[in-house]
Amino acid sequence: MHRFTDTAVLVTGAGSGLGRAIALAFAAEGARVAAAGRTAATLRETVALIEDAGGTAAAVPADVTDSAQLRDLVRATVDRFGGLHVAVNNAGVFGGGVPTAEVREEDWEAVLRTNVTGVFLAMKHQIAHMAAHGGGAIVNVSSNLGTHLRVPHAAPYLTSKAAVTTLTRAAALDHVHQGVRINAVSPGAAEGPMSLRPGESEAERTERMKSENPLGRLASADEVAAAVLYLASPAAGAVVGSDLVIDSGSAA
Predict the structure, then answer these.
(1) How many Cβ atoms are within 10 Å of 239's Cβ, its own excluded?
(2) Which residues are catalytic?
(3) Which of 91, 160, 190, 204 has the highest count of CB atoms within 10 angstroms of its CB?
């Protein structure tokens, strides 16, 4: 399948984990991928993987908390690939580990600045371009934690991801008439370092998942990426403001 041939796709947080998997999946289906993130070295690794597989990509360092950098990121994508047709706002950080009343104010602000304001600022510039150039699709990466499921000692992260889901739906309603479709995916525990507990090995995580979630295993990064590609594809043309949960049944 090559659903995204000649499509320009921007992925934030593309240097590792789900962001890298999403970038690779789009490139495998013919997209030209702008891989964005704060760390140039890991972005170059993502680009190398794409190019080694015969795809097309460029590393574009950017900090999602900086509006000017996000404006320039959109411009760089358009200049390099001739447009911006799909954007995936995946960059995020985890914040928690203590009860709500013990969260430091600077930690609270840092999580919301990246996870919520970063998505808002990214969409602001992405939508402006897409609305002026025939439309496009945006997929925001939220989480099953927040709107769908709560756990102790994670107030900043829970709040930020619940906000991403609501922000996605609000923006979807505001801009669908301009040809911009906006949706979210909400992964649960998936392949990658964020699902490991402190000091836990991957083998120990696998054993924990057997009893901790209904499916008995993690979602793979490729399974999350497949959901993102569906929402960005013409097959999801009537899907607007959705929040697709991919968490092995944890929040069912």
Answers:
(1) 16
(2) 157
(3) 160
